[in-house]
Amino acid sequence: MAEMMRPAAEPWWLIGSAAMALHGARVTVEDVDLLIAPGDARKLFGDSVAPGRPSALFRSALFGCRDAAGLRLEVMAGLEVRRKGAWYPVRPQDREAVPLGDHLLFTPGRDGLIAMCRLFDRPKDRERAVLMH
Prior knowledge:
Elements: H1 2-5, E1 13-15, H2 16-22, E2 31-36, H3 38-45, E3 58-59, E4 62-68, E5 71-77, E6 80-83, E7 86-89, E8 96-100, E9 103-107, H4 110-120, H5 123-132
Parallel strand pairs: 2-5
Antiparallel strand pairs: 1-2, 3-6, 4-5, 6-7, 8-9
Helix pairs in contact: 4-5
Protein name: Nucleotidyltransferase family protein
Organism: Sphingomonas parva
InterPro entries: NT_sf
């Protein structure tokens, strides 16, 4: 993952359960969620990203999936969340380098991940916020 992201021009983050696991939370990691700038998404993932199809809760300018070390990698650029009838951009306020072997992966800090869980406010997110404390 870190090697794949080396050419990125703008900050990127792993979010969701993979980021929480990197911070020591005991969560099941079923996929890896990558939050990235649209230009970098196009440059690094090319045709594997396309305009995202919105759900009731999320939408993204670009979205794509690919296999990464046996896990599903979900690439999201321009991610937004719907709260109280309005769309809000999802952009972490901090960026922490977390070592994994010889590589550095970037995630929001613990407080940032908790804030993201509270923003998303699904049952699994509320549970994960508790696990992050």
